[in-house]
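worker-03 picked up job from queue 'complexes'. Input manifest follows; two sequence lines, order preserved.
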Amino acid sequence: MIRLNLSSKIAALTAILLVGLGAIMLVTFGILSARQIDRTIEADAITAGRQLRLYLNQRSIELKNKSRLAAEGTPRVKTLIFLEDIPTLQKEIPDITREFSVDAVQVVSQDGEVMGQSAELAGIGPFLQTQVKEALKSGIAHTSIVHSGSDIYLTSCAPVRSGAFTRGAISLFEKLGSQQAMAVGRQTGDEIGFLVDGKLVASSLNAPFSVPSQPNSPKQLTLNGELYVSVVQSLPNTEASENLGLVILRSTHAITEPYVETRTAFVSVLAFSLVLSIASGIAFGKGIAGPISSLAEAARMVQEGKWPETVKVQRQDEIGTLQSSFNDMVIASRKAQERLLAMIDLDPLTELLNHRSFRERLSQEARRCESSNSSMALALIDVDKFDHLNETLGHSKGDETLREIADVIRECVPEYSIVSRYAGDEFAILLPNTDAESIAVITNYIRVKLQQNRCVSTVSVGCSEFPKNTSREDGLILAAELALVRAKQLGRNRVCLFDAVPGADQAADPFLLYHSAENGSFATIQALAAAVDAKDNYTNGHSERVAKYAVMLSTALGDSPETVDKVFKCGTLHDVGKIGVPDAILKKPAKLDPDEQLIMETHTVLGELIAGKVPQLAELLPGVRNHHERWDGRGYPDGLAGERIPYIARVLAVADSYDAMTSDRPYRKGLSQDIAIEEIEKSSGKQFDPHIAATFVKLHRERGGILE
Amino acid sequence: MLTSLLLLGLTRLESTLSGTVSLPNGRPAYQAIVSFTGSTRPKPGGKAVVDQKDRTFLPHVSVVPVGTRVQFPNNDIVFHNVFTEFNSTKFDLGNYPKGTSRSQVLTRPGLAVILCSIHPEMCAYVMVVDTPFCALTDKKGHYQISGVPSGHYKVTFWHESGAKTAFDTDIAGNAPINIPLKK
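worker-03 finished. Artifact:
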């Protein structure tokens, strides 16, 4: 498929229309002219036939006069007839023929008997006798056309008289051959042929041609590359039985010439108009296609995300309207996109950069710092006790506080600062080409300013510096977070540098510092758990075993390695709160009374409190607090039910119960493993998450007892 | 009177022949030539005249015995020419003006068709016979020839219309000989 541009299409369309119109006109003209030509030719041919008949009649009259002369003015012939001297007469025939410049002569007696005739007349038809008799009887010359074999003769018979008596007749014959056909044809400018029984015997043309069988019904035929119309007419003055005819061939050239000329002129005009229309079509098409293709180009630019220049509107027509509409559309889209893009990058509440765009800017700045060997400083500002503020004063007051803090930050930072709402109650300020000490001064000013503004909340700030504190951008954030945690630890409402974080001087990398801090805290708690175990002989190794079972169960449940890790840590720490339960209750060798039971139950909350002191263990707290919750909601301390119970707590509940059941207690012996499993199965859906319980039972049975 | 007596005296030896000649259509043959050719030869030196007047030969038909000199006077107001194409008596007297005359002795029997080369419509017949017994019929087709000795004769009839006949007969007495001509 050829792809045409608009102007070519318009030009082609115009051309097709014009050609089609021209073709229709040509065909119509052709049909009309052909009909007209046919009519003209037919009429002409018939007229020509009439003229030729007149001409032949004229020739007949001439021949008649000649024959009269022969009959009356030739004494020799006359004498011979009178004398009935047949032999002499026969000898005289060629002389007479010559004398009258005819083709044949026949002399008959008064009885109609042939006295002498030219040899050519041997095959003359009987019609002649009729004519001769007529002439003898009437004494008047008669003419007719007869044929002898394939020769046609114009003949005239004149009586030879002696006084009142007819003594004989002399007939002169003029052959109608090619010469005569030419002579006859010259009268009307046609080609002529003579016919005997419908067959051509002589013609003015050298070549033979086909002859229409019907008289007076014109037929067309092509001869020597020229178109003729042929009409057959009977020869005048002939006997019907003789069946002699005349065929007229009229060249259509003369008739068709005016039509051909008109057609040529028309085709020339058509061709000229075609060229003109194609040219104007192309010009018109360009006039349309030009603005449209420039609009298309502009539209492509829009698609590629660029904004094109305003299209110049020059036209008043639909295209001009299209251009101005397009311009309006581009401007509207551009504004809308800019607003949307701005919204993507901004936090709607504070109109500071949001977390995502801040991370982008941070990456940019980090790369820039690396390439230019410059530094930058980050400050994380956390609103102190924001959750408490939301709970006590309501979320709208919380939002208002956040906006107020954001305003203060905006007011206090240099222009080139990158400020964002980093988290719900956390702001981040990134200052290129700045060290941590400088940003600490700025943020401290913010903190003071907030206090001066009697803001309902104070802020804690952690500051870090790139690349001094870390070589990674996430390290920069972590360093600031560690500094922030330190600030919180130090009692909030203060600014703390990463350098102030304990151990920061030994482990320059904040990641190492973070992990060592976390692991250090965990080890401490592990020690506490061990201390609990040691406090109660009966529970000796309980935490360790629960952690082990819980890990097995978590793995069987298909949990991620991180979750399994959390389960292990949580299992280890879950009973750390028992450190706060009096020994009398903890070690009581009998069932606890309800008050003692209540005290015992506080170990969950106590555990959370203890572990909560270590920031790195924050994620473990739900498991510690809720590991005594029941699926039916009848557990403690929060009475949570179903899936509202944290997942880790649900896993720990199964592992904890199993170990508790299978362990000896001061007041009872431990249950067998199978019975314990049966108990768990029974409590599925009541005490335990059915899925977790089922998985544990299945796991236990597959292994034939977990301890093994 | 003497002559008539002589003639009467000879009647036994000589017959006067008469009769009527009719054409095939029954009408009487005018100017038909009747001749009886026997043993009697005509005497030469006879004279005859074919006049030319009003572009006509007059008489139109003549019958003359052999050896007759025929005069062709031009009594018309124009030039005339007299000629014949007949083989046996072929002559051409040339063109001559009015008031003049030319003549020709016709020495051989047969029909001479006398024509004028200037006026083709002019035509005269002069029958030359080898007998003194010849005659032209009148308007009624009647002929009469006297002084014909008895004997055997060849009878010849000719008419301009082309009708003609010939037969042999013995002549004795004056019984009329009527001849119906056939075509």
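worker-03 released lock.
The domain at 42-130 of chain B is CATH 2.60.40.420 (Immunoglobulin-like).
Chain B has one helix and 17 strands.
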